[in-house]
Amino acid sequence: MNRSLLLLALCACVLAVAAGCAAPGAPMPPSLRLPAAVDDLSAVRKGNRVILSWSPPTETTDHQTIHWPTVTRICRVVNQFPINTCGVVVKELKSSELTSATPAGRKPVVSVEGVLPEPLISPQNQATYAVEVLNQHGKSAGLSNQVRVSLVATPPPPSEFHVSLDAQGPLLRWNIVNLPAPLPGVSHRLRLYRREHGKADFALIGEEPYRPGEDEARDTSFEWEHEYEYKIDSVTVLAQRSPEIEVEGADSATVSLVAHDIFPPAVPGGLQAVFSSVGQKPFIDLTWAPNTERDLAGYIVYRRTAGTDFAAVTKALVTAPAWRDTEVHPGEKYYYAVSAIDLRGNQSARSATAEETAPQEVR
Predict the structure, then answer these.
(1) What fold, for 42-150?
(2) Shared fold status for 42-150 and 272-357
(3) Going by DSSP bridges, is the β-strand pair 213-218/227-238 parallel, antiparallel, or unpaired?
(4) I need a labelling partner for 76 at 20 to 30 A (CA). Which of 92, 127, 180, 324 fits?
């Protein structure tokens, strides 16, 4: 009997030890369900608009996936950096109102646009923006990273903006009626943008002075047979800041153009013809001034004799501004002309005529 009691006691001890090993530790505090703070807020100023972009949080500060609605506050404070509180709440957005502007499969990024109140516009003012994401109980993990935006005034885009096409390519023209009132440390210039038809983004193709009156600029990087869209913006520069601050104004109207090449190269000039036959078969050398078009394909040489019409004597395009005619006969007078042709088959008129006579053979 004592032996049985001892065995039962041992079993009870083993079970107690096993139960002690599986006992839970200190209880974890309940999750506060605070959305993680945004850390990639950015801001772009365009005229009187500010575009803010950021990635909405998908997890809480406890690394739990957010499955419940949130509210995002857009905060703005003028002439204070950094900020500790939200200041003016420019806008509140429910999570259902946030639409990603990035392709599927990439980290979502949302963009929100706001209009600046006119009383805030001043070269001395800067706005600090932040966003704050709240849970269902109105609690947050704090403000996002903070971005600053200059509130200097920007002039309107030039008027009468249009584009035309000539042999040198697209020519952009515009008119500036009134210059902004001069301010110390504040200057302006123009930026020209271009994109191919059907593309989303414009690319900067040049900068020009911001000056009153009619002005123009040439697009020197275009390609023939492409369709383009152009716009022009004013840029305000604050040199009094270090580093300089640049703020783009509102976009001009977008203008379109098809760069269809119907323009022939220039007529070749300076054509000369010289006979030679010393110690070899007689020939006539032709030389002329080279054309400078970047799309030049080559030249065609024409020849005629008395009583005949000009006919092409080169079977292939001549790529250098020189050619040798070896099919000449003693006592014959020859007349030559040259035309230039581009890569799309546009051909110039024939050059001025050069003439040369192959002398009679001396016996």
Answers:
(1) Immunoglobulin-like (2.60.40)
(2) yes
(3) unpaired
(4) 180
